[in-house]
Each structure stands twice: as C-alpha cells, then as structure tokens.
Write a structure and sequence with these properties.
By secondary structure, the chain is of the alpha/beta class. Helices cover about 35% and strands about 15% of the residues. It has helices at about 15-25, 45-55, 110-120, 130-140, 145, 170-175, 175-185, 195-200, 205-210, 215-225, 240-245, 250-260, 310-320; strands at about 5-10, 30-35, 65, 125, 150-155, 190-195, 265-270, 275, 285-290, 300-305. About 50% of the residues are buried.
C-alpha cells in the first residue's frame, strides 16, 4: 500500500511539535517536507524548533523550509507567552549555532508548490499555523489547490468563541486575510479542526501525565518543554478554554493531524460553506459557519465536530515513543 504523502506547514509551538511527531510515528505516512511560518514565535525560532523535533525523532533527512515572517497585511505580531517566547517553553539551552545551514535555501512557498506539482493529487497539506504560506502559494500558482489531494487546517472557530480575541482563534487572527483567501480559493477537499472542536473533544489531565511519562526520548522531550509552560499546567490561572469548556488537556494541532493519519478518528462533521470575517474590531478573524447557505457559495468544507478520543489517545501515546525506524 502506497504511503500517504504529507507536507506540514507549521508555526512550531509545543502542540505543533506534538502533531509533527504524530506524523513521524505513522508507518504509512511519508513527510515530504516541513514548511515554516511565523505565529507562535518568529519564523527563525520556528525553523529551529522543527529541526529540534526532527533531531529528537532521528528524522533529520526530512527537508525544512523557511517561509513567511509576517502576515499579508500589517506587521507580524508574535509576542505571545502561550508557549514561551521561543515557542517551546523557553527551557531549551542547547541551541544549534549552525541551524541556518540545515534549512533548505528554497523558500517554503516555492517548495510547497514544487512538491505538490511533482506529486499531483497525491499530497495532503497539513496547515497548523497561520495560513500565510498557503495564501501566497495560490497567488503564485492559482492552480495549486486543485493539485492537492486534500487540505487539513487547525484553526478558526465555529461558535464565535475566540482564544486570542473575543471572537477569533489564534491561527486565523494572526493573518485573517490569508485565512480568507484560503477558505475562498482552495476548492480541494478541506477539513477544519476548529478551536471549539478541539476543546469539546478534550482529554483529562491524567492522560497528559501518562503521555509525557513514557520511557522514550520524544516523551522526555515533551515533558521538558511543557514543564514550565502555563498552558500545560492544570494548576495555572484560569484561561478562556477553562471558562468555556472547563479544565482539560488539549493538544490542538494533534486533532487535525490525527484525522489526516486515520480518517476513522473523525466521527462527525458538518459539511457547509465557511467564510472569514475581515472587518470590525470584535469579529475580525472569526470564521463564520454558513449552515443555511446564505452566502450562496459553491464550495463547502468539512468542519469537524466529534472524534473518537480513544483512537486520538492511542495516536498521541504512539507519537512520543520515538525515535522509531521505518
């Protein structure tokens, strides 16, 4: 059976690292490349974080490409404390001084277009950061979306609840124009794991303890980078997720990745048009789910609503039992 070909577009924070390791642990997945974008931290940090994850899992042959350092419109805003200033909890001291030599010279957007063109209708694109690289790809090659097998996005929201602003989810809020372009112009089969979807299918904190206390290099790495991160502490201050959904462990990007790896993880979804709001001081960046087709769009996406948490848990556990040779 042929392997699933995958490109991962990421702003590599802690949950991105978890999702990347999930893909690396999947025996029937071949990661063609990892493209980096600003978001959880500056794109230079994102590149270093991806290299670190690949090193931990002993998969350094996978090419890494540097991409967009900011949104299509306006300045980059990456000063966030969710995963620390470096995206991986601000605890890693052994930074690689020669990391730039290990990044491919080809720009991430060019690499994305090339890899998909070389493998038309075979590549799944996993977008787990702001969608800037994807928006630029369709501007450079308008036929790019039609060459994809499918697209998976972790981002957006479906109930108007926001985690970074009142009404918008982080990845979409970081670059609303790019999110708008992608959801208007990518007509390929598209699956969206929204913020509320992840939160409504959360796992208990006891599972998180089991996850990071496994005896393997990847698990020890995850335990290290989450050790001082308030987003991975059940004793931390109450955040918006706790207010809306109660205390829980959520590895956001893993929800999109799990469905890409094993479609049976997704048990329910809504097929309908969506649009990203670009105006207003409150709703900018919010994803509108149009279940009554008032927008009269001719393209629908699959908005995930329920998953098999047992299967998700097993994929998470397996992801931290690395390195593993394929």
């Amino acid at each position: 059976m042929a392997k699933k070909l995958l490109i991962i577009d990421t702003d590599c924070g802690i949950d991105d690292a978890q999702a990347i390791m999930m893909a690396l642990a999947a025996p029937d997945v071949e990661v063609l490349g990892i493209t980096c974008v600003f978001g959880n931290t500056a794109v230079e940090n994102v590149c270093q974080n991806v290299l670190k994850v690949l090193s931990v899992c002993e998969r350094q042959r996978i090419p890494v490409f540097r991409g967009s350092a900011g949104p299509l419109v306006g300045p980059a805003n990456t000063v966030r404390d969710h995963f620390g200033t470096d995206g991986l909890g601000d605890v890693l001291k052994d930074k690689d001084p020669r990391w730039e030599e290990k990044i491919q010279r080809e720009h991430a957007v060019s690499a994305m277009i090339r890899l998909v063109s070389e493998n038309q209708n075979q590549v799944s694109l996993m977008a787990i950061g702001p969608l800037t690289n994807l928006a630029l790809a369709v501007r450079l090659d308008p036929g790019f979306p039609q060459k994809l097998k499918d697209l998976y996005i972790m981002g957006g929201n479906m109930e108007g609840k926001g985690n970074v602003t009142l009404c918008a989810e982080f990845n979409f809020a970081m670059d609303p124009e790019s999110a708008y372009i992608v959801l208007e112009e990518f007509l390929c089969t598209t699956y969206i794991a929204s913020w509320e979807y992840a939160c409504r299918n959360s796992l208990p904190w006891e599972f998180f303890e089991q996850l990071v206390n496994q005896d393997a290099p990847a698990a020890r790495f995850m335990k290290t980078i989450t050790a001082k991160c308030w987003a991975y502490s059940k004793e931390a201050m109450v955040n918006k997720r706790d207010v809306y959904f109660g205390p829980c462990f959520v590895s956001y990007d893993a929800y999109a990745m799990a469905t890409c790896i094993d479609s049976s993880v997704l048990t329910e979804s809504i097929e309908c048009p969506v649009r990203v709001e670009l105006q207003g001081s409150i709703a900018r960046g919010m994803m509108v789910v149009d279940r009554t087709n008032q927008l009269k769009k001719n393209h629908s996406v699959f908005v995930m609503t329920k998953c098999d948490c047992a299967k998700l848990s097993q994929l998470l556990l397996k992801s931290l039992r690395q390195p593993c040779r394929k």
